[in-house]
Amino acid sequence: MKKIEAVIRPEKLEDVKDALGKYGIQGMTVTQVVGCGLQKGRVGVYRGHEYSINLIPKLKIEIVLMDHQVQEVVDIISDEARTGAVGDGKIFIFSLENAYRIRTGESGNEAI
Could you state, in order of their start, the residue ranges of all structural domains in the chain? Predict the structure, then answer.
């Protein structure tokens, strides 16, 4: 089992979610996060004064899936979230030891 964490632009969520749904991914967790990377923030103006916004709002999508699905899901997220500009996001992949479904007690791939 693997866990994918993808940090994307908020405006790309529906595109990514729809494409993952067509592939058959039904479960995911979406969290509002802030961060910085190569984008380095931006400069804002409030009441005539400039100020630096160093942390940019993003969304983090977390998906747990079977090993053989990882590359296809990474490709889907990459294709749908890409704008070609700095700040499109990152995808991280983690190995998972186990998963449990609380309601039924199932574990492993059956719990996904």
Answer: 1-109
